[in-house]
Automatic annotation (TrEMBL):
Xref: InterPro entries: Fungal_SecMetab_SDRs, NAD(P)-bd_dom_sf, SDR_fam
Origin: domain of life: Eukaryota
Family according to the record: Belongs to the short-chain dehydrogenases/reductases (SDR) family.
Protein name: Uncharacterized protein
């Protein structure tokens, strides 16, 4: 029986940080998170800060015990998605923690979230170096994460998955009513965007970003076919996800151009992500495609 763990990259800021904290509250699984711009120790400290909510009346375990459990199951590794050697090294460190050999461990939820944006409004504004960075981070970054993490750690066909029998099965968790029920299949999620859609492109502009995210959707479909036909079959799938416009540093310069009701708090955005990707997504309807925060497909 293969035991599950979770992967989030990167997790030092924005959606990745909020998602990691949400999953620490909502699951009892070990989590591997990555950081590029801050040290692993600083990132881990920030992710765990004020994490524990007041114990529920049904909880008989101390807050200190809960905090220690959260600390022990969170691992933060240095990783730069523009450096394959960095990704490979982090993959080897994860393999030492959760050996995939003989089906002892498998990644059950994986989130590839790297992103950079240079909003060129005309071809004359496209700068080669910035466009190259956009593809390195947004497209090649997720591809290398697929290579070194998804293809290495997702369960193989025939793997027997050992999942928590019920959301309240862990004595260490202080907020049982928040716990997720894990899907029977593993899921690899790559962050995309509505701007990836050629069918939906009615405004133009944002050349390198649109193209890089269209590439994400193509890679997601291609990798999912690999999982479905060769590696995992019904044990794992891949999909892409558009979170909407989220109030993070990534979108700060565009906040004034977005209607208030379409600008999401990061915690709400993470709740929608988890609901669509973990709770709603089904093998027969969702795999290989791009979905938005409403649970609706973003057309290619």
């Amino acid at each position: 029986m293969s035991k599950p763990w979770i992967f989030v990259s990167p997790a030092n800021r924005g959606i990745g940080a909020a998602l990691t904290r949400h999953l620490l509250r909502a699951t009892t699984l070990p989590i591997v998170a990555t950081s590029r711009s801050t040290s692993p120790s600083e990132t881990k400290k920030a992710l765990l800060a004020d994490l524990s909510l007041p114990p529920s009346s049904s909880s008989s375990f101390s807050s200190s015990a809960t905090q220690q459990h959260d600390h022990d199951r969170l691992t933060v590794l240095p990783l730069d998605v523009t450096s394959e050697s960095s990704i490979e090294q982090a993959s080897d460190q994860a393999a030492a923690l959760f050996p995939p050999e003989r089906g002892r461990w498998h990644m059950h939820l994986g989130f590839a979230l790297p992103g950079v944006l240079y909003p060129e409004r005309s071809p004359r504004q496209v700068e080669y170096a910035a466009a190259l960075e956009t593809f390195q981070v947004n497209t090649l970054g997720p591809l290398m994460l697929m290579k070194w993490f998804a293809d290495r750690f997702l369960p193989r066909k025939g793997t027997e998955l050992l999942l928590p029998s019920s959301p309240s099965s862990s004595p260490h968790h202080h907020h049982q009513n928040l716990l997720l029920t894990l899907p029977p299949h593993a899921t690899w999620t790559t962050l995309s965007a509505r701007l990836s859609s050629i069918a939906d492109n009615t405004l133009g502009g944002w050349y390198s970003y649109r193209a890089s995210k269209a590439g994400v959707n193509q890679l997601t479909k291609t990798f999912d076919l690999h999982l479905a036909r060769q590696r995992s079959q019904d044990r794992a799938m891949a999909l892409a996800y558009h979170p909407g416009t989220v109030r993070t540093d990534f979108t700060r310069e565009f906040w004034t151009h977005v209607p208030r009701e379409q600008l999401f708090d990061v915690d709400y955005a993470v709740e929608r992500l988890v609901d669509v990707v973990v709770a709603q997504a089904q093998l027969d309807t969702h795999r290989g495609r791009c979905w938005d925060w409403k649970g609706e497909e973003v057309l290619p």
